[in-house]
Amino acid sequence: MSESQPDVPFAAPPPPPSERGAWLLACSVGAIGLAVLVAVLSGVVGHTSATVAPPPVLVSAATPVPAPGSPAADVGASARAHAAIVASPSPEQQRAQARSFVDATRTHISRAWMEGFYPIYATAQSTFGVNWLLLASIHKQESAFSSAPGIYHGLNFAHCCGGPMQFNVTNGPVTTWDLVADSYTYGKRPAHYDHMTAMHPSIYDDFDAIMAAAHLLSADGAEYALNESAWDAAYDYYGHDATGVTYADEVLARAIGWSQHGFCINCGVEAKMVEAVQAAYGAPVLAALEVEEAKARAKPKAVAAARAVKPGRRS
C-alpha cells in the first residue's frame, strides 16, 4: 500500500499572450497598403515627374502691317464678307469687358496647372487646323486659363455665357454652344485632365469646351496662320462691335507675341504688338463700324426733318 501523497494546491493556467501587438501590426500594414493604393490611383505613385511641354510653335508669325492705300471702310467690309458664326454679347457684358480689356488676366498661373491643357490644345489644333496659340490666347482672355472664379459652375455676370471658353448658351434660337457642342467627338479625349465632367458635352469640361472653341474658330476662317483670318475669327468669337475689335486686337497680338518669343503663361500682351494688330486689322473694321453708327444716328434725324417740312393735308 502506497503512502498517500500530500495535498498540492491546483495551479492556475498562465494567462494567454496579449494580442495587442499583433493587432497594431496588422492595422499598420493595412494603413500603409491603403495609403499606397490611394497614391497610385491619384497619380502620386507610378507617374514620372517630368515636365509636360506645350505643343511646338508652328511658325513665328510676322508683325502685321496695314495694307497700303486700302480705304478703311472697304477693308472693314471685306473682312466681314464670309458667313460667320457670331457671338452676341449683351450690352452689360460689352461694357464690363471693355473696362477689363487692358490685359486684365493677371492671375499667376502655375506650370503644373497649365500642363493639363497642352494635350487638349494639341488635339484641337490637329483636329480642326487652328493654331493652338490663337486658341490658348482666347482661353486666357476668356477665363485666365480656366482659373477665374465661377468658371466651372453657373453663368457669368451677364447670365449668358459659361465655362472655360465662355460659350453663350442663351442666344439663339440655336445657341452658339449648341452649334458646336458635339465637337469633342472629332478628337481623342485625353485619359486624364482636370475638370472632366461625368456627362458630355459640357461647357464646364475643359476638353469639350476647348474643342468646341477650335471648331468655331475654324468655321469662321481661322487656320494655322496668325493673320487677318485669325483676327476675323477672334472678332466673330466675341461679337461685332467696338469691344469686339479690342478683343480681337489683344487676342491676336498675344498669339503673335507667343509665336515670336515662345509660349509664356504669365506674360502680358506687348503694347506695340497690340498697336500693330490694331492698325492692320482692327482700325479698318472700327472705322466701318463708326460709319454705320453715324448713318444709324442720322437716319432718325432725317426722318424727323422730312416730317417737319411735309405739307399738312387739306381739309
Question: Summed up, what is this model?
Answer:
This protein is an all-alpha fold. The chain has eleven helices and two strands, in the order ααααααββααααα.
Give a topology summary:
Elements: H1 20-42, H2 72-79, H3 91-100, H4 111-115, H5 118-128, H6 132-143, E1 161-162, E2 167-168, H7 176-180, H8 206-219, H9 228-238, H10 242-261, H11 271-309
Antiparallel strand pairs: 1-2
Helix pairs in contact: 2-11, 3-10, 5-6, 5-8, 6-10, 8-9, 9-10, 10-11
Describe this structure in words.
This protein is mainly alpha-helical and about 325 residues long. β1 (about 160) and β2 (about 165-170) form a beta hairpin. α5 (about 120-130) packs across α6, α6 crosses α10 and α9 packs across α10 (about 240-260). Residues about 1-5, about 40-50 and about 70-80 have low confidence and may be disordered. The chain has one domain (about 70-305): Lysozyme. The protein has helices at about 20-40, 70-80, 90-100, 110-115, 120-130, 130-145, 175-180, 205-220, 230-240, 240-260, 270-310; strands spanning about 160, 165-170. The chain has 11 helices and 2 strands. It is elongated. A two-stranded antiparallel ribbon has the order 1-2. The N and C termini lie far apart (about 165 Å).
